[in-house]
């Protein structure tokens, strides 16, 4: 039986109802079938987002709010030529003025509300690790999404991580946040650091397919971007858990259901599963 056929419910049933950037993305990129009103919805979501964008390109001078809005614009299909995207990325680049233990290229806002907002928002591909690692990895990922892998600011950060990072450097959230960007960047995707990170996760994977101490959905999604046999073996081992964890309405997760569903479905797309609407 094909894996999608083993699911409890068709996940398109849940994705069809989402009137959000994640819903737009899933229908277009995963199920390849947009709703009739998605064009208008996309424009409305774009306009709603930019209505609260500040002149400096940020949203309330908060990294979390700014990064999440820019991520939403990426999901909606807007590129770096869009004025709101460009301004948002420019603001994010403006806070790349930090060093971490002497290593350059780190991002960190001066807004004292950001750490608590990071811990309470739980939206998107990155989770609440150390503030500077969260902001830096999220920023580099956004720049990757918009095609700036070869720009000096991004390469400076990646090279810094390659100089000191190991998969036991910090907490589980910091580990998976950093590993995610190292997996996807051309300078680091085949590095010994990525290999070491994947090997450590393999040792932590339990018989149920989960990773001891690590967030299941974020880890599953991060590994789906690795073109590596060790990652592939872990994803295959985690597949039964994906089936068990699915909700009756076709979604995954609880309080962060929309994000968790995105992480599962986008990961399945990344590894080549074709999901029918």
Protein architecture, described:
By secondary structure, the chain is mainly α. The protein has one domain (3-270): Glycosyltransferase (Alpha/alpha barrel). It has helices at 12-15, 21-30, 38-50, 63-75, 83-94, 114-121, 131-145, 152-164, 172-184, 192-204, 216-223, 229-245, 257-270; strands at residues 98-100, 103-106. Helix 9 packs parallel to helix 11 (216-223). The longest helix has 17 residues, at 229-245.
Keywords:
single chain; 277 residues; mainly alpha; Glycosyltransferase; two-stranded antiparallel ribbon; 13 helices
In brief:
This protein is mainly alpha-helical and 277 residues long. It has helices at residues 12-15, 21-30, 38-50, 63-75, 83-94, 114-121, 131-145, 152-164, 172-184, 192-204, 216-223, 229-245, 257-270, and strands at residues 98-100, 103-106. The longest helix has 17 residues, at 229-245.
């Amino acid at each position: 039986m094909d894996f999608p056929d083993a699911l409890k419910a068709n996940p398109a049933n849940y994705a069809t109802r989402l009137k959000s950037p994640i819903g737009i993305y899933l229908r277009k990129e995963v199920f390849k079938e947009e709703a009739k009103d998605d064009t208008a919805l996309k424009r409305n979501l774009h306009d709603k987002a930019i209505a609260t964008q500040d002149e400096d390109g940020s949203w309330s001078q908060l990294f979390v709010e700014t990064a999440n809005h820019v991520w939403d614009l990426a999901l909606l299909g807007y590129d770096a030529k869009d004025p709101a995207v460009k301004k948002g990325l420019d603001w994010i680049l403006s806070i790349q003025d930090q060093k971490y233990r002497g290593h350059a290229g780190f991002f960190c806002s001066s807004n004292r509300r950001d750490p608590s907002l990071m811990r309470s928002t739980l939206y998107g591909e990155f989770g609440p690790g150390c503030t500077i690692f969260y902001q830096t990895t999220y920023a580099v990922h956004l720049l990757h999404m918009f095609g700036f892998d070869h720009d000096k600011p991004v390469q400076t950060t990646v090279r810094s991580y390659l100089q000191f990072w190991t998969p036991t450097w910090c907490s589980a959230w910091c580990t998976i946040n950093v590993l995610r960007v190292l997996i996807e960047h051309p300078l680091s995707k085949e590095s010994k650091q990525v290999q070491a990170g994947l090997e450590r996760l393999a040792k932590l994977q339990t018989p149920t397919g989960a990773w001891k101490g690590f967030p299941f959905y974020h880890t599953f999604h991060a590994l789906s971007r690795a073109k590596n046999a060790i990652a592939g073996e872990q994803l295959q081992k985690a597949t039964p858990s994906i089936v068990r964890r699915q909700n009756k309405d076709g979604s995954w997760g609880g309080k962060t259901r929309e994000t968790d569903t995105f992480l599962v479905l986008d990961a399945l797309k990344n590894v080549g599963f074709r999901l029918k609407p």
